[in-house]
Amino acid sequence: MNLQDLDQNWIEQFDKPLVIAGPCSAESEKQMMEIAERMDRNYMQVFRAGIWKPRTKPGSFEGVGAIGLNWLRKIKEEFKMPVATEVANASHAKLALEFDIDYLWIGARSTVNPFTIQEIAESLRDTDKIVLVKNPVNPDLDLWIGALERLAAQGIKKIGVIHRGFSSHNKSKYRNNPQWQIALELKDRFPNIPIIGDPSHITGRRDLIAEVAQQAFNLEYNGLMVEVHNNPDEAWSDAKQQITPEALKDILVDITLRKKNDSSDAFSTKLNRFRGEIDELDNQLLGLLAARMEVAKKIGTLKKEHNVAIFQPDRWNVLKKLAIRNGERMGLSEDFLEHLLVSIHKESVELQNKIMEE
Ligand code: PEP
Ligand code: MN
């Protein structure tokens, strides 16, 4: 089966966005039951808990293991709520099926490894359980899609993705940089694959969960996965990003869901006018860029005549610094300016290179 033919009914059965909530890690039966009890079923439909935990360093809590499957089963029976857990190898996957776990998710550290994905996919062959694939830790869309293809190739039809952000060496306010454009490209290419946002692992901080959850809905995500705990500060893993089930309900009550479109005249007239302005500005931008490249070519000819190297690091650094300072004054972000300048500069260097070779 290919990715275009997946079954979408599993997400369409929900009349509200799907919210999967529960602790990062199962700690005890009592903890799980208390959390499930405190989750408002009108807002949170699926219970999650990790029982095998991939930890960055040894010595951290690595999960309660298979015993947690009994606790998940109990929650499913007592609360009539579907349950979800992470599977990271073939034996986890087999055990999860044996215990009738409804949603199996593949963690970010597993998605990076095609061998792991292949072995999980084979042990889930033809399952009608829902399999959710977190993005790989590194920003590689093909790796993410490859994992989906491996699952589909084993006859798994109910597939979704979870966007949990990407590791980065650069410190930002988030634990994992969302890089929304990667998830949006996936959504664009496979609009039939439901996408769930994971603001807990994106932010790593409980005070930022609401804003990232809202952003996910602004981008028309199908749902959220959020870590909730009966006593977040004392959680055995990911304490800083966990919130209580009540705090999650408050966030969900306040969230604005965006419509796909609005057919009213007031909306479409304005939208068309703004789009006209954007088209006009884009034209002007392209004209300016073309003019700038013409000047770059003249510099290229001059450098050739005087036998001077194309790339002048000092000039480039000054130019970049100045442009970023000016751009920031105009309300543009540093990150955007940096990308824009690098790509303009690259094009100039390539044009000048051509001139040198003529
Ligand atoms: C988790 O959901 O608890 C987890 C370990 O997530 P990730 O794979 O996104 O790090
Ligand atoms: Mn976690």
What do these coordinates show?
The protein is an alpha/beta fold and 358 residues long. It contains 14 helices and eight strands. The protein has helices at 9-12, 29-38, 67-79, 90-98, 108-111, 114-123, 141-153, 180-189, 199-203, 209-218, 245-254, 265-305, 313-329, 334-357, and strands at residues 18-22, 46-48, 83-86, 103-106, 130-134, 159-163, 195-197, 223-227. Strands 1-2-3-4-5-6-7-8 form an eight-stranded parallel beta barrel, surrounded by five helices. The longest helix is centred in the C-terminal third of the chain and has 41 residues, at 265-305. The radius of gyration is 25 Å and the shape is elongated. The termini are far apart. The relative contact order is 0.10. The model has no long low-confidence stretch (mean pLDDT 95). The structure holds phosphoenolpyruvate (PEP) and manganese (II) ion. Residues 24, 227, 237-238 line the site of manganese (II) ion. Phosphoenolpyruvate is lined by residues 24, 50, 54, 107-109, 134, 164, 201.
